[in-house]
Amino acid sequence: MCRDKYLNNNQRGFTILDTMLQLIILMMFAQFFLLFFVWYGHKKSGILSDNELQYEMFVYQLSKELIHAKEFSLSEKYTALYSSNRGIIGIKSVGSDIRRVGGYQPLLFGLQYAEFEYADSIFETTITFKSGSERRRKFIVPNQE
User: Fold this and answer.
1) What is the pTM of this model?
2) Among the listed residues 55, 59, 38, the one whose alpha carbon sits nearest the alpha carbon of residue 47
3) How far is residue 50's CA from residue 43's CA, in Å, rounded to a whole number?
4) Please, which residues have CB within 8 angstroms of residue 79's CB and are 6 or more apart in sequence?
5) How far apart, in whole angstroms, are the C-alpha atoms of residue 19 and residue 71?
6) Number of Cβ atoms within 10 Å of the Cβ of 23
7) Closest of 90, 50, 85 to residue 73, by C-alpha
8) Do 114 and 98 touch, CB atoms closer than 8 A?
9) Distance of alpha carbon 120 from alpha carbon 89, whole angstroms
10) How far apart are CA 56 and CA 54, in angstroms?
């Protein structure tokens, strides 16, 4: 009687094949999670970080403006003025930002320190972010005489 009970039972359970398939799917998803965390770690410390992206955009904009500069002057080590077809424009370090002279447009923000130097047609910027990373860049200012 016990034997008939087991043979006529139509209940289904997990088989070893079902368990293996689910384990394989779980391992694939675990690999995707690991890849995501590795990518995120590189993003936070690599070229894609917010500070680096903002800095590269600032450098690109400044270099495009300095190409067309007719006159250049450094009034102090925190303010640089240059003239172009658009008139006299410039940048200055104010607190933790680099802004346009005479305006409130921030070009670069989140800084701890910013300093400008100019000698022999070379304009050099030294910028330290609040995270501690420091960036220096030299720009050639063409002599327009």
Assistant:
1) 0.63
2) 55
3) 9
4) 90, 91, 92, 93, 101, 116
5) 75
6) 10
7) 90
8) yes
9) 21
10) 6
pLDDT in tens, the chain (145 residues): 455 555 555 666 778 888 899 999 999 999 988 888 888 877 766 655 677 888 889 999 888 888 888 888 888 777 888 887 778 888 888 888 898 887 778 888 889 989 899 888 889 999 998 888 889 999 988 865 5
- Per-residue pLDDT, 136: 93
Q: How does DSSP classify residue 72?
A: E
Q: What is the CB neighbour count within 10 angstroms for residue 101?
A: 15
Structure tokens at 71: 């006159």
Side-chain half-sphere of 85: how many Cα atoms within 13 Å?
A: 4
Give the C-alpha separation, 43 to 39, whole Å: 6
* Rounded Cα gap, residues 131 and 51, in angstroms: 9
In terms of DSSP bridges, do strands 106-109 and 71-76 run parallel, antiparallel, or are they unpaired? unpaired
One-letter amino acid at 81 equals L
In sequence order, the 6+-apart residues with CB closer than 8 A to the CB of 67 are 142
In sequence order, what are the residues at sequence separation of 6 or more whose Cβ sits closer than 8 angstroms to the Cβ of residue 136?
Answer: 124, 125, 126, 127
